[in-house]
Amino acid sequence: MKGNCIFEFKLNGMFTVKTQSKEFLVEKSDDSIRVNGSPISWNLQWISPTKIHFLHQNKSLEAELISFERESKTLQIRFGNKISSLIIQDRHDLLLEKLGMNLTASNTLKEIKAPMPGLILDLKVKPGDEVKKGDVVLILEAMKMENSIKSPGDGIVKSVKVNLKDSVEKNQVLIQF
Prior knowledge:
By secondary structure, this protein is mainly β. It folds into 2 domains: about 15-90, Glycoprotein, Type 4 Pilin (2-Layer Sandwich), CATH 3.30.700; about 100-175, CATH 2.40.50.100. The protein has one helix spanning about 90-100, and strands at about 15-20, 25-30, 35, 40, 45-50, 50-55, 60-70, 75-80, 80-90, 110-115, 120-125, 130, 135-140, 145-150, 155, 160, 165-170, 175. The strands form 4 sheets. A 9-stranded antiparallel beta sheet has the order 4-3-2-1-9-8-7-6-5. The chain is elongated and about 65 Å long.
């Protein structure tokens, strides 16, 4: 059923899969899958666009996709009678999380950090301002280019930690919510 699966999204390379209690590092290429450094060899058979049957360690298992939230890359999957939530994060998601610019772990926006060293050219917000996801909050000059820094989510500005013409370092907190 390849191509018909509603949760087929092209994940090749390295990514993480998080459950409520565990995190797995997955390395996937066209011909192999490694989980936490160990190769896995499962016999997979698509039953329908949302169901897959596989054999693992002489056990027959069936998994069914219940829901998929594309923006947060969260899957609800049923294994037998148990439903599990999985969060998929590729290297870009992990970088955004490291920079404090993701909203997958929490629906509340806490801070925006500088994605690179640069100079603050313009501040578009002040404490008390309400911002929506995608609003430009400041302009950062880096490598002779003006970069619009946008809010990764909705929130109310608690404090602006920089001033016009300030030089900032990568990962420096610029705005708190």
